[in-house]
Design a protein that fits this description.
Blueprint lengths: L6 E4 L6 E2 L1 H15 L9 H5 L3 H8 L3 H18 L4 E2 L3 H10 L3 E6 L3 H10 L7 E4 L6 H11 L7 E5 L2 H10 L2 E5 L6 H6 L4 E3 L9
Parallel strand pairs: 1-4, 1-6, 4-5, 6-7, 7-8
Antiparallel strand pairs: 2-3
Helix pairs in contact: 1-4, 7-8
Length: 208
């Protein structure tokens, strides 16, 4: 099979690992203790049908509050990541990409150490790099950095993620955006941000 791209960069939460419900549970626990967000958090259905920017706007957080909440959230989620389940058929898809001598990497908002523990525990193929961004909307900077560091041709590179902010990050970094429908944002919301591709199963990456 001839693959269109040589470089596949993945988001982690909601894309490689099934962390959707775990993430909401962590967020609820944090807010019950620290009361950063006023009122109840949106439901899974409400969250899935809001773009990343609309979701944060609806939470009515200042930049400082958002940074603090994100810091607490990532710390809480990092404890749950190693025990999360992998998305069905993701391991086999990654193994095929690796066997085809593609570059595979991860750019995520999550901490690198628990992500690497997850990959080891699930016997995932060895990624060429795992990098992270502590900023909610800062993935484009990390993407540009790994493109330069690993000498990746943007035209041969695709970023795979489950949120509208992943589409924005890919576009700002000058690479292709592929959205997955099994993560945080619904297919309807993802389509509104016009990704280059939308897939509903991991192995569809091989048929872009």
């Amino acid at each position: 099979m001839d693959l269109r791209f040589k470089n596949y960069i993945f988001d982690f939460d909601g894309t490689i690992a099934n962390t959707l419900y775990t993430s909401l549970a962590v967020a609820k626990d944090i807010n019950s203790r620290y009361k950063i967000i006023k009122g109840d958090l949106p439901s899974i259905e409400e969250i899935r049908n809001l773009s990343s920017r609309d979701l944060y706007a609806q939470l009515h957080l200042s930049k400082i509050q958002l940074f603090y909440f994100t810091f607490l959230f990532l710390n809480g989620l990092s404890k749950e990541i190693p025990n999360s389940e992998a998305v069905f058929d993701m391991k086999e898809t990654l193994e095929y990409l690796k066997s085809a001598e593609c570059v595979i990497g991860i750019v995520t908002s999550s901490r690198k150490k628990p992500v690497k523990k997850f990959l080891e525990k699930n016997n995932m193929p060895i990624f060429d790099f795992v990098d992270s961004s502590i900023h909610v909307f800062g993935k484009d900077k990390v993407l540009r950095r790994v493109l330069k560091k690993y000498n990746l041709n943007p035209l041969e590179t695709v970023y795979i993620g489950d949120e509208t902010r992943d589409i924005d990050a890919a576009r700002k970094a000058g690479i292709h955006a592929c959205s997955v429908t099994w993560g945080l944002n619904s297919e309807q919301v993802l389509k509104q941000s016009n990704p280059d591709f939308i897939i509903s199963k991991p192995n569809e990456l091989l048929m872009l």
